[in-house]
Design a protein that fits this description.
The structure is a homodimer.
Chain A (H helix, E strand, L loop, with lengths): L7 E3 L4 E4 L10 E4 L2 H9 L6 H17 L6 H16 L6 H16 L3 H31 L7 E4 L5 H4 L5 H10 L5 E5 L6 H13 L3 E4 L4 H6 L5 E4 L3 E3 L4 E4 L2 H10 L4 E4 L5 E2 L16 H4 E2 L2 E2 L6 E2 L4 E4 L6 E4 L2 E3 L3 H8 L1
Parallel strand pairs in A: 4-5, 4-7, 5-6, 7-10, 8-11, 10-16
Antiparallel strand pairs in A: 1-2, 2-3, 8-9, 9-15, 12-13, 16-17
Helix pairs in contact in A: 1-2, 1-3, 2-3, 2-4, 2-5, 3-4, 4-5, 5-7
């Protein structure tokens, strides 16, 4: 699989981020050496998708560290921590961001002086980047083994190379299946409010040559009940130790309706998305974003002025609705508590 | 309840239709004596909602009949039938349109000559209009008896006065509950692709003074699972003899998730929505609308050029997910086959 676009690239002392809020109409880039701009890009979803924001966060720490003038190791580490905290405060749900920041912290602890720490951070961020890309490649190939010839696969949100800086998670599995000549086709949920499915998934599948039909999120149930869907596969933003999974808002009802219609429901995610410190989905923090994302479309108000909207960005799918979790370290089947523990 | 707007008004020899595609930003009207313009307004959703399109269809037949010059009764009836067929071909799913056209046909059969038939058609259309408005008033009050103080009620699409030319069906129940001082609040699904929830339901609830929070369709499951929803209530476009119900796309998954979370799921509709000739939901024709409604927003393409979209306008909720069907003739509980037969 050849990917001719990259959501994040390290340019030595700057990072280049493909602005996903402008896709598919415009392919524009943010090039910056300012960690605050990276944090802003994560917050504003210029870079999004759990694995990709982990990678962007790691490079953000590098950019912040490269500019710190402190001479003492202690003072330097203190200032790196401030950079890391600013990046951590951008988005609360995706585990991969914290996974990356924790790795960056460990890497910095090993350096003896600011110069060594800077080098260690650059190395670690690139390592995270490469490992996450490799992980998605591996899980995509593992997941493709579960997909059958001629299947129609339903997916939600965007989980391709744009979301991962690699092959993709759920979309990686689909594209790997396509490459194996299994002639699958995709029903892609548009994914309101920000239309990542319509804007990004349809764009990526078209580039990959996979037949795709766009539907509104509300149509998925109809197609499942009509026997038109062979499996549902989505990515994940955080997986608890028991397999409960937070993912883009709208994932949970897909899982319920899939189960009701005996359609397999798969989660695809690298192990960096698993949070062993969180026992169940009830403890996963759910990001609440601004009401304007629901009330407005391209700046234009959809409703009368003065109407309220809610905007939880994720929901939690309890483990009992999940047929299998596809990771780079293997495919986990129920019971998840044991399966995940064994894998990690 | 005072309603200061009317989706359809009969002006003697013309009909006035509030253009719902422009709401809530603009309150514009179509005034016409041309039945083809009424048919166009139904097709383009200028007038929409199962009861309202029945009423509009009846007035369309009147407008067509008033212009027929045929001298013989037979030739006149033949031409009326052509008008009726043109109106019948606009939208296939909502039962109320065919219910109204069948009543208009029966009324015309009684007239002895063209002049008598014209008078009979005018009278019958106004009777249908009044009866449908009265039916929604009655079912709203019956349904309010099921709603409890302080409830948060989730609804989908638009089912208020705009959709019915009366109180409303599901929204009528909510507004009647509010008028009883039960202090309910509403979570309104925006209802993609045409945003009837965002544009119309939020507008009508605001006018009625009912607290409303707008959500995307994909958020409904999250709020149900989080214990924030006390009941779900929607309208219906066609109810089969066994209670299976076709309604706006996205209704079926709401019903499945409601059942999964032990939340009551109600359908509210006048008996004119029940189709005794259709044994089960599998036989209800589902309208497939143009892909552009999904691909574009206010004319602007959301996706890359060349992406396909599906656009089924309705889905079918099997009777086993429905807690009760609220009609103007009474509240029907399972088993529906017997309950509906007894009521009709």
């Amino acid at each position: 699989m050849k990917i001719d676009y990259q959501p994040i690239e390290w340019l030595g002392n700057r990072v280049r981020i493909l602005d996903q809020t402008k896709l598919p109409q415009k392919e524009t880039y943010l090039v910056t050496d300012d960690y605050r701009k990276v944090a802003g890009a994560i917050k504003e979803l210029k870079v999004r998708g759990a694995p990709a924001i982990g990678i962007a966060g790691a490079y953000g720490v590098v950019l912040g560290a490269l500019k710190i003038k402190a001479a003492s190791r202690e003072e330097f580490l203190k200032q790196v921590q401030k950079v890391s905290d600013a990046i951590a405060s951008t988005r609360p749900t995706a585990r991969n961001l914290f996974f990356a920041l924790e790795r960056m912290q460990k890497a910095s602890a090993k350096g003896k002086n600011p110069e060594e720490i800077k080098k260690a951070l650059v190395t670690e961020a690139q390592k995270i980047h490469k490992e996450e890309a490799d992980a998605t490649k591996h899980l995509s190939e593992l997941g493709a083994g579960l997909m059958k010839k001629g299947w129609t696969i339903l997916t939600h949100c965007n989980t391709g190379p744009l979301a991962t800086s690699g092959y993709g998670t759920a979309l990686g599995v689909i594209i790997a299946t396509h490459k194996q000549g299994k002639k699958v086709q995709v029903l892609a949920d548009e994914t309101r409010p920000l239309l990542q499915g319509a804007r990004l998934t349809a764009w990526e599948l078209k580039k990959a040559g996979v037949p795709v039909t766009l539907i509104t999120d509300s149509m998925a149930g109809h197609f499942m009940r009509s026997g038109k869907v062979d499996c549902v596969i989505t990515g994940a933003d955080r997986i608890a130790a028991n397999g409960d999974t937070a993912n883009k808002i709208g994932t949970y009802p897909l899982a319920v309706v899939a189960k009701e219609n005996r359609i397999p429901f798969y989660i695809a995610a690298p192990v960096s998305t698993i949070d062993m410190k969180i026992k169940s989905g009830a403890r996963i923090p759910i990001e609440e974003r601004g009401a304007d994302e629901v009330l407005r479309f391209n700046g234009q108000l959809l409703v009368l002025d003065g109407i309220n909207a809610a905007n939880p960005a994720f929901d939690v799918t309890p483990n009992r609705y999940i047929t299998a979790i596809i990771t780079d370290k293997g495919i986990i089947k129920p019971p998840y508590l044991e399966g995940i523990k064994k894998l990690i």
